[in-house]
Amino acid sequence: MLDNTRLRIAMQKSGRLSDDSRELLTRCGIKINLQQQRLIAFAENMPIDILRVRDDDIPGLVMDGVVDLGIIGENVLEEEVLTRRAQGEDPQLSILRRLDFGGCRLSLAMPADSVYTGPECLDTKRIATSYPHLLKKYFDSKGLTFKSCLLNGSVEVAPRAGLSDAICDLVSTGATLEANGLREVDVIYRSKAVLIQRAGELSEDKQALVNRLMTRIQGVIQARE
Ligand code: PRT
Ligand code: ZN
After folding, report:
1. Tens of pLDDT along 119-154?
2. Closest ligand 1 atom to the C-alpha of 55?
3. Sign of CA dihedral 24, 38, 75, 171
4. Which of 83, 184, 203, 207 has its CA 20 to 30 A from that of 173?
């Protein structure tokens, strides 16, 4: 087992959030050597261990109390919260701060030539997505229903492949939608990376360290604004 007196922070190992997450921690003064292909990196100058994992695992690691802090996209966090609630759990964690990277939107998109006058156009239609619970929350709020086509990749090819009428996927520039003959018709959720903390009290030392990190993060983000 890892040394429980050290603060554990989970971040994405490789992907869209990993460079920005690493840079934020480094700018907070944490000296870490992330060059090796290791799951865990030990900070040299503070009692902090960095866990480098798939982004999808981060909310669960925080909710289950395996790590103290995590850096994760709100989209992944909210989907995991809704998934656990649907399973009858009551997931606990706190959002310490919204960060200034990882911005994207979860949008509905349809073949470019289709007519869209509002979400009711998609009532009872089949929609491909990796975010079925966020999509259901949106449709529920409108009193609408949809048939799910759950895909964890290649969502944007589903309409062309005849698998779905529309998709609900993350968008940043929109280039991927365009390249696949799709048009963004509605934004259902706007996301950024957030710093989250597990439920329950931290030890006095860990809490003091988190307070110090929060002050530094505030400074780093303000300096970039
Ligand atoms: O391997 P691992 O599971 O850790 O990573 P992953 O492949 O699941 O996730 P990754 O690294 O792609 O994304 C991590 C997080 O970055 C997401 O959960 C979002 O919070 C955030 N993010 C920000 C994005 C994008 N922007 C984004 N553009 N995640 C995905 N995309 C996709 C988008 O869906 C499209 O397919 O990137 C593609 C290009 O986008 P356009 O619109 O610029 O063409
Ligand atoms: Zn992932």
Report:
1. 999 999 999 999 999 999 999 999 999 999 999 999
2. 4
3. positive
4. 83
